[in-house]
Amino acid sequence: xxxKEDLLRRSIPELRELFLGRRRPVPKGLLEALEADSRQGAQxxxxxxxxxxxxxxxxxxxxHTLLRFExxxxxxxFSFVAGVDEAGMAPLAGPVVAGAVILPQNYKLRGLNDSxxxxxQEMRDELAAQIKQDAVCWSYGFAAVEEIDRINIYHAxxxxxxxxxxxxxxxxxFVLVDARKIPQCxxxxxxxxxxxxxxxxxxxxxxxxxxxxxxxxxxxDGLYQGYGFASHKGYPTPEHCRALKTLGALPIHRRSFNxxxxxxGLDPIQTELFEENSDAIQPEHAAAHAN
Length: 291
Prior knowledge:
Blueprint: H1 4-8, H2 12-21, H3 30-36, H4 42-66, H5 68-75, E1 81-87, E2 96-102, H6 121-134, E3 137-143, H7 145-151, H8 153-167, E4 174-178, E5 189-192, H9 200-223, H10 229-232, H11 238-247, H12 258-264, H13 286-290
Parallel strand pairs: 1-4, 4-5
Antiparallel strand pairs: 1-2, 2-3
């Protein structure tokens, strides 16, 4: 890094790109020098750098809180804590996909959050790539449309989770799951309601599940023209429902879902999307379990 004196000879746009765009460390004394600089924009840049510091501190605190369950389990001697979550319970078409991730201890990735809260697809893809690079190990599992129709969407979601855990190349010591319990899990587990927003490991798994399923639905868009799978990913948007009524049901449409059955002229099926799980930790009790 150039000296403070060399940096002060540069233009404000250059410094803005260096310290805000590329987020390089700010040398000691530079911030104060910018605040005393007479050039137009120097003080504004200094304010923005200070705002960056505040944002970094806030994000660091958020990420530390997101590790509450993992920190407790690491302290108990569980080294490999896996997070598990699924994506694709509500769509009318395509598989349900689960992700499983074991993060390094005290892992903090800026922007890590429940995949449903990350609206920008490019950011989700970038986070998924970083998680895959940094994780101790990660995996995913599919439950196909035929399985969804045979055993119902709730149990298909559990099956995808089971497959994701079984696909991990290292066996977890403990498993954190979003809201449910995985059948035949090879390790102790805990279900946490809204776990994808409360646990870093589950949040990472939700991003793996979401991006893996989205990539699959992009392939389906190339296979089945006119349905718009690239945009809605199989969810029951007005665009998808119109295409379903106009073009008919495809092999990848879920015959156990009433909107699809209606198009096929079949009687509706009364099913529950989720089953009650009294073992799952409710959000209001999460802090108590983190102590």
